[in-house]
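Bug #77: duplicate submission created two jobs. Keeping one. Sequence:
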Amino acid sequence: MITLFLVLTMLLVLTQRTVTRQGITVAEEALLTVVAPVQGVFQRFTSSVEGLRTSIKGYQFLAAENRRLQDELAATLALEARLTELRHENNRLRQMLNFEARSEHELIAAEVIARDSSSWFQTISINKGSLHGVEQNLAVVTSEGLIGSILAVSPVSSQVLLLTDNRRAVSAMVQRSREPGMVGVVEADADLPGYLRMINLPRDANIQPGDTIISSGLGGIYPQGLVLGYVLEMVEEELGLLRFALLRPAANFNRLEEVFVVVPSAVPAQGGEGVF
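Kept job's structure:
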């Protein structure tokens, strides 16, 4: 430290003397030759410190800018997700309005508020009940097709038993042929959860893959003409005397959000379809 002090003092003296006269002595030249490298080191050190301070400020600015951009990106993604959900909801509501306008039945619109926790495919709860005109055994549909019927009713909510429940069966026929004597029963397929089957079909039944299966109206619970599903394939029964049709349900039971309760125009007669 003492040596550094002496060197700096000599530099100051030399600087003052060169101001008052021209030229330098041999001793001063020798001293400058020794001191110049030290002076360069100090200058480079000062420049490095200044550069480091500038770099730190630049890093802090970039870090703050990065956080700001991340916040803006998160807000943009959240807004985009919300807009996508609103578009989907708007499409569903448009389909519901179109379906309601085309329907020949009185409909009660409802929202799905819960699913049966014990099984994905058995029951759902809706936010309409007896105060809204809902009654037990009324059919429940979407714009795609029939999904089930009212199982239990409370004043402000109801439970819907879905077609994919093993306790549910619907009298049905082929929309294409509409043969009066060609009526079968649609029920849940026990081997393929989420699918349906149309049973009790004679071997010569006029039914083929791609056919649309609709409710026959027999039994009094379900009005005629509600779409149940679409034939995927015909399967032989074990004894070979009868066949059944494997159906893909018309409605997507995994995405039930808004539904309609069908209010019949006449009091339904008691019949052979419904809950077993």
